[in-house]
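so the lab meeting is tmrw and i was supposed to have these ready like two days ago... anyway. pasting both below. for each one the top line is the aa sequence and the line under it is the structure tokens. i havent really looked at them closely yet so no promises
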Amino acid sequence: GRGRIVVETAAGVSADTFGEVTFGTRTGCSVVVDDAIAAARHCAIEHDGGFFVRDLGSVSGTWVDGVRIGAPTPLRDGSQIVFGATRITARIEQRLHDGKVVVAAECLLDV
């Protein structure tokens, strides 16, 4: 099955796709964040038999549930992803053959 990834921000839905969503400050990322601390291409959420988050070589790192990740890390329902000044909460809706993760992104700092 393919995993659907939906990203919701305060401004509305900023991504709704299958496969992979990238986050960063650079135009061309799936979700462009206005975040002074985040990298140009910071992290990605991908589906490969389950939902994973991976850091894209950022200096400041990507954190899942308070732990800095070094490899693709599985997301569970309610996982908190933090990068730069942005916090993301994952809500995973799993069906038998297909899954969907709805990711609510918010900026922690007024940057």
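ok protien two:
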Amino acid sequence: FFSSRRRHTRLQGDGVQTCALPISANATSAVVGAAFTYQTLATGNPQPTYSIVGAPVGAALDAATGLLSWTPTYAQEGAGTASFTITATNAAGSTSKAFTIHIAPEVPSGG
């Protein structure tokens, strides 16, 4: 059984030469063995790029789009959570948002 979870967080700013400003995110969870995606959005002039610090093993963040992709493993389930920080940066500066993703056990497929 595989499912995909997609969440969005918008980091935004306005005007010329602005960088993203954070908006709080809802708590998020990921399921062991299931594809998880999280779309971080930022606005600014010029358009910000994204980076991640403390990414869980196997997670990837697209620097141009802010899309985080990850499939939690059984080994990561034991930790209970994964914490990391995503930063949006442009010529005007940067802003960061800390995330904690709760890692849930795999859902039995029944049968």
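from a quick look at the 2nd one: Residues 1-16 have pLDDT under 50 and may be disordered. The chain has one helix and eight strands. will dig more after coffe
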